[in-house]
């Protein structure tokens, strides 16, 4: 008996595998357009398993591809004589449509739709069959029937997708909103689906539709997910202050965590809305009872104030604020992030490297982890580079590499070894370190390493004395030291004394970014235009186009010129890292209703 069952099992398995292999082969023929070969296999599969609808529909499809509409019709009619399946009725109607018998097709479509009244369980399969043939209006009718006949089911997500395909954005939004009410935990999926249809422009028609719908929902049923969705929409529009209002409303309803509010503050800060970011962090300070959260907020506020400070008096006020916080919270493992921020403030803004170094060395004596010690050493080494004490800095960077091998901070230390060697003019050693970092697990470090390696390798052989490259590295160091004017002057020296050398476009680009830092936007514009005119085939061409477009768009109020540059990137620099962002901003400036 056991042997008999084994043999039966083997035969069934072999039959399944054989059918599976045949189907794969038939699909392969179909994709290649070899429909006659596919037809033979599907005919055999349909004979073997006449009740397998998958094989039947593929057989019909192949007949239709070969324009053998009568053959497809005969198969469908024979099957419908046995059982009036509504998906087969749709298929027969579509076959008549392909034969231009539109009245017969419409009659059959109506029959399939009416069938739903008797057997609502067929809603999805019938609507899906209509969708397969791009019969979207018919699919909508079926799903709408389903909503009435099967109120426990929800077809809003399917309807939203169809309305989106039709370009009926308002109806699409309505159905997505309806689906969120049905399944609130799907809100992030809906955000992703909606994101392609809105833009940064708050006056965009689609944005207005969605905002009205959400505000209406908040008035009707103030559930947390409507506030969350509206907050998300405001973030897309970069209206961080309005998003903050929604987040506060959310927090008041559920005051468990300030994480969402802090995340919004950081997003606003990263997008240069420091005023809103500071307002949010002040709210965090007023609200939180947690020391770590308070310290994080204090630190961000002080860093914002530091970036906006324009006088020594303002910096001294910030210095005093740091010390008051240390009096309040002490100097321990808990306040280490604040200590690191203060050490950087002293060195890079107060220009007091000795006090910064002394302060950080005391931090190293605290009861901190090996990783935290590495963070302190990394900043100490940076300050030594600031002082041009390169060899001492290299010792710290190397210690981090040895103590925390293969970690991200170790890779960052290796990159800084390379950068320090580059500042010193030791280009060969710098290049050897950068080669290793090209495969860094940190994409940011890998990209920075590749950029610096290309700069060195492209320019170190042109001049045996490597004068221009040494000037450029020194200008880079000046920029690191916040000596912006000195960096610009040294880059001017390269531009004047090394005309025709390959480093010129790099010097123009670096200088343009420094001009932007000093808000000398017209000078930056001139540099970008020169790169575009004289170095259109070189590696920085797309960078120059993008940065100039951003300059026009955000500082020089020249939206038309910005639009032309974004369009240039779309058509001439398809492989550029700026391609996706340029397409998005081009469509926004053009006023597209769909982003």
UniProtKB/TrEMBL annotation:
The protein's matches in Pfam families, at most eight in alphabetical order, are given as: TPR_6
Entry protein name: Tetratricopeptide repeat protein
User: Could you tell me which species this protein originates from?
Assistant: Winogradskyella poriferorum
Instruction: Please spell out the taxonomic lineage of the organism that makes this protein.
Output: Bacteria, Pseudomonadati, Bacteroidota, Flavobacteriia, Flavobacteriales
């Amino acid at each position: 008996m056991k042997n008999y069952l084994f043999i039966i099992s083997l035969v069934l398995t072999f039959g399944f595998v054989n059918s599976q292999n045949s189907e794969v082969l038939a699909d392969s023929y179909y994709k290649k357009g070899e429909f006659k070969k596919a037809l033979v296999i599907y005919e055999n599969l349909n004979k073997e398993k006449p009740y397998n609808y998958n094989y039947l529909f593929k057989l019909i499809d192949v007949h239709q591809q070969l324009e053998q509409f009568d053959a497809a019709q005969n198969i469908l009619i024979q099957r419908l004589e046995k059982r009036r399946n509504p998906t087969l009725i749709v298929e027969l109607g579509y076959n008549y449509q392909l034969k231009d018998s539109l009245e017969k097709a419409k009659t059959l479509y109506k029959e399939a739709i009416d069938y739903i009244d008797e057997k609502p369980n067929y809603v999805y399969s019938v609507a899906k069959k209509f969708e397969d043939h791009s019969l979207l209006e018919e699919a909508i009718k079926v799903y709408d029937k389903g909503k009435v006949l099967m109120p426990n089911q929800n077809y809003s997500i399917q309807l939203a997708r169809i309305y989106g395909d039709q370009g009926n954005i308002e109806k699409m939004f309505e159905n997505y909103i309806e689906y969120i009410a049905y399944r609130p935990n799907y809100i992030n999926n809906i955000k992703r689906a909606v994101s392609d249809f809105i833009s940064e422009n708050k006056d965009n028609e689609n944005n207005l539709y969605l905002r009205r719908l959400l505000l209406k929902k908040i008035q009707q049923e103030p559930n947390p997910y409507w506030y969350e969705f509206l907050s998300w929409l405001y973030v897309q529009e970069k209206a961080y202050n309005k998003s903050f209002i929604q987040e506060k409303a959310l927090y008041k309803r559920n005051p468990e965590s300030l994480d969402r509010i802090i995340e919004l503050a950081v997003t606003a800060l990263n997008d240069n809305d420091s005023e809103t970011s500071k307002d949010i962090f002040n709210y965090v300070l007023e609200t939180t009872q947690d020391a770590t959260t308070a310290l994080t907020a204090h630190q961000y506020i002080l860093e914002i104030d530091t970036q906006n400070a324009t006088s020594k008096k303002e910096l001294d006020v910030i210095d005093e604020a740091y010390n008051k916080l240390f009096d309040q919270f002490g100097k321990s493992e808990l306040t280490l992030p604040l200590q690191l921020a203060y050490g950087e403030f002293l060195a890079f803004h107060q220009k007091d490297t000795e006090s910064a170094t002394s302060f950080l060395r005391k931090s190293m004596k605290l009861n901190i982890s090996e990783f935290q010690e590495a963070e302190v050493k990394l900043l100490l080494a940076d300050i030594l580079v600031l002082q041009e004490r390169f060899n001492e800095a290299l010792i710290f960077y190397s210690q981090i590499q040895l103590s925390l091998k293969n970690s991200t901070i170790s890779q960052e230390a290796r990159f800084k070894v390379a950068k320090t060697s580059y500042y010193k003019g030791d280009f060969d050693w710098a290049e050897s370190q950068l080669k290793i970092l090209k495969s860094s697990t940190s994409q940011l470090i890998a990209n920075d390493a590749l950029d610096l390696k290309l700069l060195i390798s492209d320019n170190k052989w042109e001049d045996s004395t490597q004068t221009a490259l040494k000037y450029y590295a020194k200008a880079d160091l000046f920029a690191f030291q916040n000596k912006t004017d000195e960096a610009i002057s040294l880059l001017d020296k390269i531009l004047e004394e090394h005309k025709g050398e390959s480093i010129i476009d790099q010097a123009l680009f670096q200088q343009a970014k420094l001009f932007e830092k000093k808000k000398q936007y017209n000078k930056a514009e001139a540099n970008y235009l020169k790169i575009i005119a004289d170095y259109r085939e070189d590696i920085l061409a797309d960078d120059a186009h993008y940065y100039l477009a951003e300059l026009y768009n955000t500082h020089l109020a020249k939206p038309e010129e910005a639009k032309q540059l974004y369009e240039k990137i779309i058509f001439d620099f398809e492989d550029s890292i700026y391609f996706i962002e340029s397409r998005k901003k081009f469509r926004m400036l053009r006023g597209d209703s769909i982003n």
